[in-house]
Amino acid sequence: MYLNIALLGGDGIGPEVLAQSVKCLQAVEHSFGHTFSFTKADIGAVAMKKTGEPLPEKTLKICKNSDAILFGAIGTPEYDQNPTSKVWPEQGLFKLRKELDLFANIRPVKVFPALAKLSPLNRGNILDTDLVIYRELTGGIYFGKKKVSKDGAKALDTCEYSEKEISRIAHLAFKAAKSRQKKLTLVDKANVLETSRLWRRVVTNIASSYPEVTLNCMFMDHAAVEMILHPNKFDVILTDNMFGDILSDQGSAISGSIGLLPSSSVGLGHAMFEPIHGSYPQAKGKNIANPVASILSVAMLLQHFDLIEEANAVISAVLKSFAKKIVTPDVLGSSKYGTDYVGDFIANNINDDNDDDLNINDENIGLGKSTII
């Protein structure tokens, strides 16, 4: 297969972890006979310094002409901590999602048994955690009308949703639940928000088309508590943009390190794959950033194109790095290996002959219905 892949390294550690993902895709090329071409483009603070825009037109064009996008990270204190700035790096990512209509953000949350002791939560409550969050990505309060009074003493952010926006991601979430444990939890604040009441009406109506799936509706505050106390009780979580942002970051903390979990953002014609962590500017250039989340995003990219065996090989190599404790300092407290070394190890162990003792197979390895990721 030939794929044209746009590389958006972004800010902070983004380019460093993305470089390890490219190594892994090149290993897949070599082992499985595919051809991937890569086109780099700027986004975020690095783009602002060059062009004044967080998403230059050139970058948008490259993304629109690609088969898939690999994204690193975005943001820098230079802009984020400046309250007078009218443009900030994250606007580039928001605009990209909107322009490509990447309306569904899919974030699997899995606790790796070998790394379970990293989690701050009770081991007995997290070991079987295997859930996936479907977050609506192009609507809601992040994209609503914004206003600040002339004296700066009042501000307004508008949250708005349509039935169409809710329906299209709800169907994706129900289909995912149908192929997993057949449980879907809608997270909202229908007790106080009209948008949440619309979400609940639309999703409840759609549920009748999926009789195999059990729908449970849960308020956001309750869901936040249950994610900490009993994360292994969830299967598929469906929610809006802001609530999904909060819950998915909370989900990453369950695994013990924010550098372990991948995500995909998909629409009808485009798809982007990225780690869920931020730009971590304090670690930039220090060769300590964890590349695993970015590399597992590569596995999601491969699955998106039905390259299941190739995705399995990537995940198998990641699991091997855990088994041999070849990890970055945020994992297991080791400072022996850096970003580049871990990336090299994983890439060098990607092949078409998975280790049988790691129990890797098509049935249990899928990132969307996984017992591994």
From TrEMBL:
UniProt pathway annotation: Amino-acid biosynthesis; L-leucine biosynthesis; L-leucine from 3-methyl-2-oxobutanoate: step 3/4
One Pfam match: Iso_dh
Keyword Membrane among UniProt keywords: no
One GO CC term on file: cytosol
Enzyme class, UniProt record, top EC level: oxidoreductase
This protein's UniProt keywords: Amino-acid biosynthesis, Branched-chain amino acid biosynthesis, Leucine biosynthesis, Magnesium, Manganese, Metal-binding, NAD, Oxidoreductase
InterPro entries registered for this protein in UniProt: IsoCit/isopropylmalate_DH_CS, IsoPropMal-DH-like_dom, Isopropylmalate_DH
Entry EC number(s): 1.1.1.85
Oxidoreductase as UniProt keyword: yes
Domain Isopropylmalate dehydrogenase-like stretches: 4-346
NCBIfam families: leuB
Entries under PANTHER family matching the protein: 3-ISOPROPYLMALATE DEHYDROGENASE (PTHR42979:SF1)
Annotated family: Belongs to the isocitrate and isopropylmalate dehydrogenases family. LeuB type 1 subfamily.
Protein name: 3-isopropylmalate dehydrogenase
Organism: Maribacter vaceletii
